[in-house]
Amino acid sequence: MPPPPLPPSTEDATGCLSWLDSQKAKSVAFIGFGTVVNIPNSEIEELAEALEVCRIPFLWSLRDNMRDCLPNGFLDRTITHGKVVPWAPQIQVLGHSSIGVHMTHCGANSVYESIANGVPMICRPFFADNKLNARLIADEWRVGVRIDGGVFTKTGVAKSLDLILEREQGRTIRSRVQALKELVLKASAPGGRATQDFKILVEKITSV
């Protein structure tokens, strides 16, 4: 099914969507790692330093209990091109026209939502299915890249953002994820392959 429509601004509790409205198309890096992942303090610092130096517009969903890990003065120095919130409506954010890339831990829901909205991914997997999903994204589907060395560094983050948002390779990746998006939406539509497979599964379960 197609991505859900964006909610009205009255439902935009943290101001994410109204802020995105002021940004250029495909220009913003959305950074979100779900509600379970605890990023090492050192990696938060490296990621923040890269965002500050690159000056790429960014929306960062960062839990309040992790804000103390940000470099001193980071929020003030990036106020003109970044927004840090304790929570973001991820599906609506990924469906916004200003989003150019999703920096993600590669949880299954995040991967599906990125693909369903045609958004390339920068992968920093942590546990469970994350690493398998990252391999699929970067090596099999080729709709994203992995962070160099497997952990956030100032240099690695800057390199990945530049590649996806500025380079020809990034445009190629964007074309691939758009094509994959069409396949996913077709499969999940009424009568599509995914819908039919789910119907068969339900029939098998209920017939036992």
Automatic annotation (TrEMBL):
This is anthocyanidin 3-O-glucosyltransferase. Keywords: Glycosyltransferase, Transferase. One of its GO terms (molecular function) is anthocyanidin 3-O-glucosyltransferase activity. One of its GO terms (biological process) is anthocyanin-containing compound biosynthetic process. Signal peptide: none annotated. It is an enzyme of class 2 (transferase). Its EC number is 2.4.1.115. PANTHER family: ISOFLAVONE 7-O-GLUCOSYLTRANSFERASE 1-LIKE, UDP-GLYCOSYLTRANSFERASE 72B1. It comes from Populus alba (White poplar). InterPro entries: UDP_glucos_trans, UDP_glycos_trans_CS. It catalyses: an anthocyanidin + UDP-alpha-D-glucose + H(+) = an anthocyanidin 3-O-beta-D-glucoside + UDP. Belongs to the UDP-glycosyltransferase family. Pathway: Pigment biosynthesis; anthocyanin biosynthesis.
